[in-house]
Amino acid sequence: MRAFINGCRNVVGLDGCHLKGKYGGCLLSATALDGQNGLVPLGIMVCKNECAENWFLFLKHLKPRLDEHPVQEINFISDRQKGLRDAVHTLFPTSPHRFCFRHMYQNFKSHFKGSKLHTMFWNAARAYKAKYFQAHMDSMMVENVKAFEYLMGEDPKSWCRAFFDHNSSCEHLSNNFSESFNNMIAKIREKPLCTLILMYGKLVMGLFYKRINACVGWDSGDLVPSAKKLLKLMFKKIGEYKVAGAVAGKVYEVTSIHSSIFTIDLDRKTCSCVQWQLRGFPCQHAVCVLQQVRPNWVQYCARYYLVDNYKITYALGMVPLEGPDDWEEPRATIVPLY
């Protein structure tokens, strides 16, 4: 949780999975994302089943630490389980709650056939601007009214990028990082409870240790490697755009080879395509402008993409869990029955 507060985005993925041991049960998990888009485990809870009461109990214990994140509100990403939705709404009533697009997409395909409808849904979800979202949904309404009504039964704020919180610096539509965590713990899901907890602690400790050592050679004041790699990819496409100045050093117009026009404001760190605002990272159009002025790229990115921030995320590491020999014996008073 200290890693989350110190350096992660204010985005939390929630998911549950079944345990495979002798006694069954479920494991509820909360995960976050670091500046390299690596998952950061925040906590787990082992319970008998995945229900509203257990999700409420799990989130209730997490809430005091989640509330310490410097950027509020917390953005949640999960499947659409009713019990989970109710627990999030009760404990975090003002927090945005995204639903995993991949699961929504699979459910949509099971109810409505045809690649045309599926493409309309995909395009609507990934639209960065409300006008484009509306255009795709209008086309769907013409094609199939029931499909339109089915999707609009869920608040678009929970599944369309056009309505996501810009403070999150995250455009993720799916909860893939939480499901990656379930795959990561596959080997411990069949273990007895005490062994499972010890193995989980060792897994997280090893993850933190590996990442803090990996970033030792990274330059302070620079961007993390994944961010620099993304910039290099965008540099290769600069020739596909033309840049025209409007207000020197501040506002520019960028025109694509398809004659699409975008307005970039360097002071506000915005682009009319909205991608810069949502990601917290320069979009292709902003890169075309910034490349001309030879900037310090760090100044135009959210703090999550900075090496210094990444190092702070994992600086405290994780203290090993004590072994069974050091556990305190339970002290329960046994009252004899007569």
UniProtKB/TrEMBL annotation:
Keyword vocabulary terms for this entry: Metal-binding, Zinc, Zinc-finger
Entry-linked SMART domains: ZnF_PMZ (SM00575)
Example of a GO MF term: zinc ion binding
Organism domain of life: Eukaryota
Limits of the SWIM-type domain: 262-294
InterPro entries given in the database record: MULE_transposase_dom (IPR018289), Znf_PMZ (IPR006564), Znf_SWIM (IPR007527)
The keyword Ribonucleoprotein belongs to this UniProt entry's keyword annotation: no
PANTHER family the UniProt entry points to: MUTATOR TRANSPOSASE MUDRA PROTEIN, POLYPROTEIN, PUTATIVE-RELATED
Record protein name field: MULE domain-containing protein
Biological source species: Heracleum sosnowskyi
